[in-house]
Amino acid sequence: MPPAKPRFVQLLNRAQRALQRWIELRPESWEGISAAQVGLLFVLQSRHEQSAAIGEVAAELGVAPAAVTNLSKRMQAAGMVERLADEHDARLTRLHMTAAGAAASARAGEVLVELNARLSAGFTPEELQVVARWLEQAATLEPGLSRQ
After folding, report:
1. What is the gyration radius of the CA atoms in the chain, in angstroms?
2. Contact 76, 111 (CB under 8 A)
3. 3-state secondary structure (DSSP) of residue 52
4. What is the mean pLDDT of residues 110-139?
5. 36 within 8 A of 60, measured Cβ to Cβ
6. First-to-last CA distance in the chain?
7. How confident is the model at residue 29, as a pLDDT?
8. What are the DSSP calls for 94-130, one per residue?
9. Is 33 helix (H, G, I), strand (E, B) or coil?
10. Is the distance from CB of 3 to CB of 129 less than 8 angstroms?
11. 3-state SS class at 70
């Protein structure tokens, strides 16, 4: 009898819940910041000038620009980002990471180094590349579109 096919959706849901619980058990690393805010800070941190337009951040996170606008307003109030008009196009709002945002990003990054080490333990680099490719494909699924 052939092995049962993996139940990917169930496995992804279980994994997401386990990751969320793991993160929530380390409140000292996430004090005053949500996972969504960490994601936004990581996008900014990956940029040369730690700056990006709201639309760029939204595309990178896979969310609507309005969600980034609302999130960035809360983060501005908390002192983690600055919201500034783009110097070349005043219609665009750019987000710049502040020193407080960089510190929060660094704290979260330290915790995620440990998490990534635990997640990758026992896998070869080649296996991890396959997992990463599969997750990237899952992250780009569009409703109603079939891949053939």
Report:
1. 18
2. no
3. strand
4. 92
5. no
6. 28
7. 67
8. EEEE-HHHHHHHHHHHHHHHHHHHHHHTT--HHHHHH
9. coil
10. no
11. helix
Q: How confident is the model at residue 89 (pLDDT cuts 50, 70, 90)?
A: confident
Contact residues for 61 (Cβ-Cβ < 8 A; gap 6+)? 39, 40, 43, 68
Of 115, 107, 46, 51, the C-alpha closest to 84 is: 51
3 state SS for 72-98? HHHHHHCCCEEEEECCCCCCCEEEEEC
pTM: 0.76
Alpha-carbon span 54 to 91, nearest angstrom = 11
Q: Rounding to the nearest 10 degrees, give the CA dihedral for residues 106, 107, 112, 118.
A: 130
Q: Amino acid letter at 118?
A: R
* Residue 129: pLDDT over 80: yes
**Cβ-based neighbour number of residue 8 at 10 Å:** 10
Long-range contacts of range 14-19, CB-CB < 8 Å, 24 or more positions apart? Answer: 19/115
**Both tokens assigned to 94:** 């750019």
User: Average pLDDT of the chain?
Assistant: 88
Element (H, E) at 51: strand 51-53
Residue 87 token pair? 């110097």
* Residue 22, both tokens: 């793991």
